[in-house]
Each structure stands twice: as C-alpha cells, then as structure tokens.
Amino acid sequence: MNIIEQFINHPDMSLMEYELLVEQAGNPEAVKRLQEEALRIRRQYYGDKVYIRGLIEFTNYCKNNCYYCGIRRDNKSLQRYRLTKEQIMECCQNGYDLGFRTFVFQGGEDPWFTEDRMVSLVRSVHEAWPDCAITLSVGELPKETYRALKKAGADRYLLRHETADKSHYESLHPEGMSFSNRMQCLQNLRALGYQVGAGFMVGSPGQNKFHLAKELYFLSHFKPDMVGIGPFIPHHKTRYKEEPAGAVSMTLFLLSVIRILLPKVLLPATTALGTIDPYGREKGLLAGANVIMPNLSPEKYRKNYALYDNKICMGEEAAKCIRCLEKRVASVGAQIVVDRGDVCK
Ligand code: 5AD
Ligand code: FES
Cα(34)–Cα(341) distance, rounded to whole angstroms? Predict the structure, then answer.
C-alpha cells in the first residue's frame, strides 16, 4: 500500500513514515487524494459551516525578539500602541453586532497587561457577552496566570509552538526564549482545561522536510484542539527580509494532512495564506480548513500590527471584511455561521 493510503487508514505513523508523506507534497495525485479525504472528513464533522473568530490585536508592544516577527522588540521603526479596555469592549460590541461569537485577544508579550489587568478585561467581556467564547493569544505566562484567566472566563488559548524541533526553534528565537518552556506552556494550558491551539509557520527559515515530519509527529501526539498554520512571510525590518516566503502548495497539503490526522480539529484558513495568494483562504477551506479569523481591531492601528509584509485587510472595516468573506466562503460552497464554534465532541 502506498504511503498516502497508509496514512489515510492509519494517520498515527512513525517519524520516518511522516517524512515519506511530506515528500508527496509535490505529487499532484497525492495532493488530490488527500484533499478529497480532508474535505470528506471536514464535512462529516462540521458540514459546510465555517466559524469566524473576531481577532482583536490589542497591543503591539512585545518584550520578545523573535527573529522572524515584525513586532519584535528591536523593531524601533514601529509605532507602538495599546488599546484601552473601553476600546477593546467597543471592538467586541461591533463584532457581536456583526455575528461574531468568539473573540480572540491577541497581542505581543506586553508586561503592561499584568495578570490583574488581563483578568479584569476577560471578566468584563465574559460578563458583557456571556454567550461568546473568549480566546487568548498573549504568549508564555506562568501557569498560575493561565489559571486565573481561565477562572475569569477564558475558554481557549492559542500558542503556536512555531517549530517542533529544539535546534530549529533556537535558530528562530534569541537566547532567553526556550523551546522547553513553550512546550510546557502548552501542557499547562491543556491541564487547566483550555481548548488549546498550537501551530507553526510553513517554510520558516531553515525548515526542511525532517522538521515538517516532526511537526506532524508532534501534532499526532499532542492532539491540539486547534492548529494554526500559515506560510512564513518575510518582514522588511527583520534579518529574514530576503528569505523566500513559504509555499501555498505546501501549506494546502499540510492543511489536508492535519484535517485527516485530527478529524475534529478547528483549523483556520489564515490571513498569512490569504496574503501570499489572493484566493489563499478559499483554497484553505477546500483543503480542509473550517475557521476564518477576520480582524476587529480599529482600522487606525491595523498597520502597526504587521507581523509580516503586505498583510491583507489593513484598511478594511470589520463590516466590509465580513461581507467580503461571506462571498468568498460561499464561492467554495460553505457558509459563515453565528456560533461559538467549539471543537465538536
Ligand atoms: N510570517 C508569517 N507568520 C508569522 N508570525 C509571526 N511572524 C510571522 C511571519 N513573518 C506568526 C507566528 C505567531 C503568529 C501570531 O504569527 O507563528 O505565532
Ligand atoms: Fe477583508 Fe476581504 S476579507 S476585505
């Protein structure tokens, strides 16, 4: 039996088998077979529903210095901003009126947002919109802080591990950031009862097929509820400004593989994918994704949350994006729904 059929029948494989699988990314027949299977599985669990998450990028201050990231501490040419609690609540109200039932609070690792301030924010949002899910994406924090935020009303947490290989991790991050702490954070979040999202960039500098096999191996063991993957895109103020962007084709291949590996996973067609290909998000949905994360941040701050160059929807108000997305989603035979969109049990 070939490796594709073997994977479809028994998705839990060895590292060496995942390597053989990844080698098939350039084989059009294999890609097609995986895509059909991924779409079948997505429909089995989620029908043609697409869940939307309202992304609120509430601070671009960051104490970290990840080599690939546009909001890294050492990027001095960036205008830094923090939204006030009132501004954040306004974004939520706007999002609620547009049909969002999940809010994602994403930011750099900003020490101004202490545990107390974050708890107060989460509690206020939870009280104001008790029918909405709250997702946090604010990086590595002590387990006790994760616990306090959960207690305040947070439901989910996104923390991309970025790469499952320790030395690759160390090549993408400065000393002081540790692979083992990141992995420990994911374990802590899981133990506290969060729905947990992991993820990585496709085509990040130095990534090879062995690394990608490791990603799949890691996902098959950790089994996150959500997996965020998107192509690496160079940012002009980073050391990787001349590096090539990750490939659309590899991203789509991996989306299909991840849908088959983790059938119920919440899998976004990411903004990065929509940035390197004008139809990237539509293609992502057809490859097995079932989530889209439009931006609810105030337009005037959007341009300052540039993790990478040429990010889409920079000047678009949320209402406009939603109308645009409704059409895009419909064009691939799916529908955006007004729903929290929890992981199906
Ligand atoms: N290209 C693509 N994705 C990036 N991210 C950060 N910088 C880049 C880049 N240059 C991703 C990281 C991070 C997420 C919020 O954005 O994976 O976890
Ligand atoms: Fe933002 Fe199309 S999704 S303008």
Answer: 25
Task: Give the pLDDT score at 344.
Answer: 87
Distance of CA 270 to the CA centre of its chain: 7
Pocket of ligand 1 (CB under 6 A): 68-69, 160, 162, 201, 230, 232-233, 235, 272, 307-308
Q: Where are the beta strands (DSSP E) in the chain?
A: 49-52, 54-59, 102-107, 133-137, 156-158, 195-202, 226-231, 291-292, 335-337
- Give the pLDDT band of residue 332 (cuts 50, 70, 90): very high
Closest ligand relative to 201 C-alpha: 1
Q: Are 83 and 117 in contact (CB under 8 A)?
A: no
pLDDT tens-digit series, residues 290-308: 999 999 999 999 999 999 9
Q: Is pLDDT above 90 for 224?
A: yes
229 in Cβ contact with 161 (< 8 Å): no
